[in-house]
Task: structure prediction
Amino acid sequence: MTTAEIITIGTELLLGDIVDINTPFISKELNKLGIDVFRTITVGDNPVRISQQILESLERATIIFTTGGLGPTIDDPTRQAVANALDVPLIFHPVLWEQILDRFKQFHHTPTENNRRQAYLPQGAEAIENSVGTAPAFYCRSKESVLICLPGVPMEVTHIFHDKINHLLIDLFHTALTTFTRVIKTAGLGESSIDNLIGDFEKLENPTVGITAHPGQVDIRITAKAEDVPTAQSMIQPIENEIVQILHDYVYGYDEDSLRNIVSDLISKGGYDITIYYPSEIEVRVIDLDLLNLFPKTIKLGRDKFNKCISDGSLYNNNKKHSIGIFLDFELHDYKRFLLTIITNQNKESKEFFFGGHESLFNERIENYTLNMILNTIKNR
Result:
């Protein structure tokens, strides 16, 4: 099995000064080729630690990527670290230096003497042309593995991968597999409950089944590897059918569907009139809810009127067939519990929810639970 590890290099990544976007990009590209990424690691600009990490990765993975550290300065240590790890010297490549000089001419810049460092590669390494930057990439073979070193600039990584790396990997490893993923979107049931219901599917090897939890909703990801997309889809379909049958009442969409869009479409098609009611005491928290962008019709009530409205339906015209009232309440300083009540001309339903996550996710939790209750209300009419 062809496996990969990605080593991102740069102290600025460890300090949080920049965000790593190379790893997600490379991971997705490898996934398309049917290559599993087993680990991603970030190492600072220290040649000893970089060398140590490369040696560890070479023991485990078939393909190792590094990004960063190929610039001309002293704190760009990747070339030397690779040479140390493979126990080979750095060799100057005159042809590579000429290519670097040509690239500087294209950019209307004058290279400095330290740019010559970029024309040195570990002995035995093969240069990979970087037509959008001045730092050449390269790759080295080590026993059964290949080490591919890319620059750190995301635009350059993207270009080199599409222009060179895809073909290189296919030539070296004859990767003819493709990976296809189907996502089942659910709401109204927690991660642990879903795991309890479909846990046996999570033991499969191909397709694989995984769960990703979000505030108020859970995604189920089914991924298959095959020689082409139609074959992968045919492998996924029976698994998908079984899972949907088990979780039928909680499935609201697939793949790129969002709960917000699904509910918005149902409201629009059905001509529903949505009003959100809330006690005046919690206004400081309610005004931050993204939910109000979706349902801008809101009514603020005093506590007594709010409670009376929920108990007997007064102040709310529930005679309209397509009218839905959402009553939202929670303690001002307690984000862990909140109460949702939905009143229509046919029914009143109240649910109390407990949220144990971080306060920053509370608003998203409220929105998703509210949308799911609206979804079920419309579906059951």
Summary: The longest strand covers residues 178-187.
